[in-house]
Amino acid sequence: MSFVGGLDEAAKHDVLTTIVVFGASGDLAKKKTYPALFHLFEQGLLPKRTRIIGYARTQMDRDKFVARVTSFFKVDVESPAVKRFVGICEYVSGQYDAAADFQRLRGEIDTNEQAMGKRGGGEERVHIYYLALPPSVFVSVGEQIRSNVYDGTCTNRVVIEKPFGHDLESSRQLSKDIGALFSEDEIYRIDHYLGKEMVKNLLALRFANVFYEAVWSHNYISNVQLIFKEPFGTEGRGGYFDEFGIIRDVVQNHLLQVLSIVAMNQPKSLGAEDIRDRKTEVLRRILPIQLEDTLLGQYVGTRDGSKPGYKDDDTVPKDSTTATFAQCVLHVDNDRWRGVPWVIKAGKALDEAKMLVRIQFKDMPNPLFPNLPRNELVLQVSPKESVYIKTIVKEPGLSTNLAMSELDLSYKTRYQDIKIPDAYATLILDVLNGDHSNFVRSDELDEAWRIFTPLLHQIEAEQVVPLPYEYGSRGPKGVDEFPSERAGYKLSNKEYHWRPKSSAASTTTTTTTTTTNRNRNCNCSDDAHSNTTYSRSNDNNNDNGGGSESWQSAGPSSPDGLPGGGGGLQRVVVNGGSGAAAADTAAAATNSAAATTTTTTTTVAAAATLAAAAAAAAAAAAAAEYRSEQCECSQCNPNYYIVPIHVLFSSRVEYACRDCKFSTHSCIDVQQHEVARGHRRWYSYPQ
To answer: Which residues does the UniProt record annotate as the domain Glucose-6-phosphate dehydrogenase NAD-binding (predicted)?
Structure first.
């Protein structure tokens, strides 16, 4: 499997390269920086002569250092690749303000370069200083680098992590202080969202497709939404988060950067400065945000006490008014976008993980088809990269009714042999190649703070109290109405359910492609899906409320509370030979027949098909392999989804839900899972 197509090959050149990771003992280095460096090493994308030196205040021997930096690798840490990688890694302990410690670091760099075969003379060398540190020490570390480590005979690059200041004034001061030490060409302000595959794809999507660029303006677009949702709170970092809040943490940087790419005019070239010029041009035309165009929230604990509220964290002040949710409207005052509202929504402890851009087009003034729902272009950045266009088509068959469908590109289906790299790996590779395209320039940063600083100061001066919302909910009161009331977003009046295409659908089982009404993401609460009736919100398809689906079992409840007849469940093994294949075929026929019989009358032929399918499925299930294996559900591993499960003595095939929100999901074994969750037995297989 290839890592990614089209990456710059310059990183493979024989350039003597030293990467110094400051803050090497911290969470950022452990969870992001070192795993990204290992990915590049594993794929042969680091220069052949590379050394990585970790620097931090923590005293650690080599064994502890290696155990820490490899703890988030997604491979066996005893593998040959990991052993080769740690062989190029070292650790130096020292203070961040001690000249002697930095001089010792410089000695380690020189020693390593000699060991790598430094030839002297005009040999090309690169020193990269990655500051995985809090902003409070940026300047002091920068001063020590400049005074005691900086080598004017080689290329020097300094990588700085957000936050870049607290408001406009502090950001300008930080830029001034760092700018006094290093040139703008040497500074790489990293915003990892700019390294995400779908964000990097925006330039190609916009400027390589004539039909997109033709409608990319206020003439055709009604409104744009940028949505960021995290299903977890600030557990473990509440004290840190309380200093910043959701606007500084996510909106002012990640989402505003994405907005600038969506909104910018075509650059003169794909050169870094031309791209950043266009982004800055857009930011300069965004008006400061008004408080009345903002909705703020702060999550509270769940009613059953299973999840804590924001202020339940001991590190958070009990009277904190820091927002963990924000929704606001921005306006771009230029010829292309004048009159188009841009809605940004971001929050923690919400009902799902998602980041997407939703572009809704204007109504079609067409007398032939009145009251049509609006077309939408949706770019899902995470967790599953995809692009789909909501479009109107005629329903198949003799009907003349119209239906909402989609043109869909799901990356995992279309590009099965391409491994999409982690955003940090992509950006570090850009640093190695000296490419600034996906990094924030100082004037971009200045404009971003100009937009949000007046709002932030007003919120703090007036001590605005955010609205409460329950952990795991959609957000505070008014969240669903906000886009419609403030931005003219129009909810579809036609039922529509988008779900990402599964690669397994085309290669493994007919059931998944046939039973589209049963294999959807379940958003039910608690164990509601074990009842005979349940419903779910239409959030996966819309994100603005409106529309829902509910379905009811065709038969009576079993003694254990499951729909359909009693008797327990059996696993249908999709790769278990002819029996499993027959079960899949029978399951597909069962559901196909069941769909047919939802009309007002049931034909004799359909009933016969249903009975035959049930008998075949029961026989296949009885013959299928039974496995007592660890849970590989999608909550534990997003690359798995639930297989059909046949209910004995029933005429139906049941499906366990794909994305249950259970707090106890932790790959426990099947028997424990069965008892703890009341699901009976349910399994999954790799896509």
So the answer is: 20-201
Question: In whole angstroms, what separates CA 405 from the centre of its chain?
Answer: 24
Count of Cβ atoms closer than 10 Å to residue 636 Cβ? 14
List domains and CATH numbers for the chain. 9-161 (3.40.50.720), 195-364+412-421+434-487 (3.30.360.10), 503-686 (no CATH)
The 10s digit of each residue's pLDDT in 490-505 is 876 555 555 555 544 3
**pTM for this predicted structure:** 0.70
Are 643 and 685 contacting, i.e. CB atoms less than 8 angstroms apart? yes
- Rounded-to-integer distance, Cα 350 and Cα 659, Å: 14
Is 296 within 8 Å of 464 (Cβ atoms)?
Answer: yes
What pLDDT band is residue 122 in, cutting at 50, 70 and 90? low
Which of the pair, 202 or 123, is modelled with greater confidence?
202
**Given the residues 127, 254, 436, 673, the one annotated as active site:** 254
| pLDDT > 70: percent of the chain | 68
- Rounded Cα distance between 389 and 376, Å, is 6
Angle, nearest 10°, between helix axes 442-461 and 272-284?
30
Q: Judging by DSSP bridges, how do beta strands 569-571 and 533-537 pair with one another?
A: unpaired
- Tokens (6 digits) for 405: 């469908």
Is 529 among the catalytic positions? no
Tokens of 388: 């789909």
* Structure-block tokens of residue 112: 């390593």
∠ CA 479-480-483, rounded to 5°: 90
Residues 6+ apart with CB under 8 A from 388: 377, 378, 380, 406, 407, 408, 409, 410, 498
Query: Phi and psi at residue 487, in whole multiples of 5°?
Result: -130, 0
Q: Does residue 185 come out as left (phi exceeding 0), alpha (psi in the -120 to 50 range) or beta?
A: alpha
- What digits encode the pLDDT tens for the residues 585-606? 333 444 444 443 333 333 444 4
Enumerate the H helices of 384-531 as residue ranges. 411-414, 423-433, 442-461, 482-487, 503-507, 510-514
Q: What whole-number distance in Å separates Cα of residue 141 and Cα of residue 22?
A: 9
- CB 109, CB 149: distance < 8 Å: yes
What is the rounded CA–CA span in Å between residue 516 and residue 132? 46
Please, is 348 exposed, middle or buried when counting C-beta atoms within 10 Å of its C-beta (0-12, 13-18, 19+)?
buried
Q: Give me the pLDDT at residue 102, please.
A: 97
C-alpha closest to that of 260 among 198, 195, 203: 203
137 has pLDDT over 50: yes
